[in-house]
């Protein structure tokens, strides 16, 4: 495992913390935005890719969740969609680590 692989694993753990925070309805937290900032820095420095549409959709969903005027059901749908986006990006990072059995 290289340093880039370890950094990817740290981001995956951070993604799990984001999903946990969203599942606990902590939508007023800046943790998802910090995750996307860390992921953008990782993508830029390590040269790994996640799908840009999923990354962009996740950032937009995180920013939408920061608004406090949304009703409950819409907020839950947006939070669920952001959890899906974070999970897909985590899987994409995880599948790029050669030491793991599901390397692509």
Features:
104 residues; mainly alpha
Note down, in words, how this protein is organized.
The protein has 104 residues and is mainly alpha-helical. It contains 4 helices and no strands. The protein is elongated, with a radius of gyration of 14 Å.
Q: Kindly report how far apart the N and C termini lie.
A: 15 Å
Cα-atom radius of gyration: 14 Å
Helix percent band: over 70%
Arithmetic mean pLDDT = 87
Annotation, overall tally of beta strands: 0
Structural class: mainly alpha
What kind of oligomer do you see? single chain
Strand content: under 5%
Flag low-confidence runs.
Answer: none
| Contiguous helical run count | 4
Order of helices and strands: HHHH
Largest sheet, in brief, is: none
Shape: elongated
Summarize the structure.
This protein has 104 residues and is an all-alpha fold.
Task: Give the topology.
Elements: H1 3-23, H2 31-46, H3 52-65, H4 72-94
Helix pairs in contact: 1-2, 1-4, 3-4
């Amino acid at each position: 495992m290289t340093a880039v692989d370890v950094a990817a694993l740290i981001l995956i753990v951070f993604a799990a913390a984001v999903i946990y925070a969203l599942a606990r309805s902590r939508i007023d937290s800046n943790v998802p935005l910090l995750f996307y900032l860390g992921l953008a820095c990782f993508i830029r420095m390590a040269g790994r890719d996640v799908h840009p549409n999923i990354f962009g959709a996740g950032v937009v969903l995180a920013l939408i969740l920061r608004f406090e005027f949304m009703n409950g059901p819409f907020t839950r749908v947006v939070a669920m969609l952001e959890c899906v986006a974070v999970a897909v990006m985590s899987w994409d990072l995880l599948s790029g680590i050669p030491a793991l059995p599901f390397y692509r």
